[in-house]
Amino acid sequence: MSENQNPQGHDLTRHDGDGTVARTDRFADPGVPEHHPRLADTDPRAAKRNERIIAILFAISCLGTIGSLVAYFAVRPDGTTPGVRLSTVLLGVALAISLFGIGFAAVHWAKTLMSSKEYVEERHSSSSSEEVREVVQQQFKDGLEDSGIARRPVLKGAVFSALALFPLAIAVPLVSSVGGDWNVGKFRNTIWRKGMRLAYDPSGRPIKASDVTVGSVAHVIPDVPAEERETHEWITEKAKAVVLLVRLDPRDLKRDHREGASYDGIVAYSKICTHVGCPVALYEQQTHHLLCPCHQSTFDVADGAKVVFGPAKRPLPQLPITVDDEGYLMAEDDFNEPVGPSYWERLK
């Protein structure tokens, strides 16, 4: 074997028109590998067994869809955190069973009962002749025959039942929610009120200004009674009212910083990014920048949380704060503007 031949003896040289010879790495087309029949191709009992397995998987999918509908109507959130969690878990598990049943059945069907032969179709122009179209139609008919669905009525009924039932798991909750609460005015305000203390999240312990050191960061929620923090309404309101508290050297605050919005270098901003609502929680102490991990919007804490980089277009809303007679941090009012990303009917 020469150095210009591959191990199979194929010539690896190219002779150009100017008489030069160049080496190339082209190999001959190995073609389609030899077909090896599966057990289900040669043993009718194995084929029947796989058919039953696939039918069972589709039946499991049907049960999952029915279970999701039962869970949706029978286990409604009762306004408490455990109730919401139970409803969510049951819906999620039922939908997972429904989807996985269809998926596993389809995969098992393709691997055990559908045709496993490999076919080669040479590329040609996109415009096909009438003869080619007839061949393609025949290939579709042959493929349908290879799938075995025509001669397997049990599988036909199972697959159509599963596929027909599954959309109900999505359509029923969607249709039942029509006519719900479309009041966008609730997005304009949060539960922060004048005199409400700032508390650590998630413990709910009120925060003293003297305990916050320069450079430190705290995740903050409104100070409400412990029993109130277990309600579904609290979870919804907390999602809008979460705050990131940072203490800077007062000299680092820009001169155009809003008067009365901070206390002795302590500033509080909404944690909800004004781009698409991700939690902004990555603080760089040296630059005083807050980073949103979703799309890298960056806000300058020392300059009113103005946008310095990224897709966000508006600063983070600021919560005006002061201290009460006992030295605890408290809100002077609600945020200076609606929190989060834009929505219809927003004034600014």
Structure description:
It is found in: Cell membrane. There is one protein chain. By secondary structure, the chain is of the alpha+beta class. The protein folds into two domains: 39-118 and 131-176; 186-331, Rieske Iron-sulfur Protein, CATH 2.102.10.10. Helices cover 34% and strands 13% of the residues. It has six helices and twelve strands. The chain has helices spanning 39-42, 44-74, 81-112, 130-147, 153-176, 232-241, and strands spanning 13-15, 21-23, 198-200, 217-222, 243-247, 266-270, 282-284, 289-291, 298-300, 306-309, 321-323, 329-331. The strands form four sheets. It has a four-stranded antiparallel beta sheet. Strands 7-8-9-10 form a four-stranded antiparallel beta sheet, with no helix packed on it. Helix 2 packs parallel to helix 5. The longest helix is centred in the first third of the chain and has 32 residues, at 81-112. The termini are far apart. The model has no long low-confidence stretch (mean pLDDT 82).
Number of helices: 6
Inertia-based shape: elongated
Percentage of β-strand residues? 5-15%
| Main pleated sheet | 4 strands, antiparallel
Work out the number of β strands: 12
Strand order of the largest sheet: 3-4-5-6
Low-confidence stretches: none
Structural class: alpha+beta
What is the end-to-end distance? 79 Å
CATH top level label of the largest domain: Mainly Beta
GO cellular component, one term: plasma membrane
Family: Belongs to the Rieske iron-sulfur protein family.
Protein name: Cytochrome bc1 complex Rieske iron-sulfur subunit
Keywords: 2Fe-2S, Cell membrane, Disulfide bond, Electron transport, Iron, Iron-sulfur, Membrane, Metal-binding, Oxidoreductase, Respiratory chain, Transmembrane, Transmembrane helix, Transport
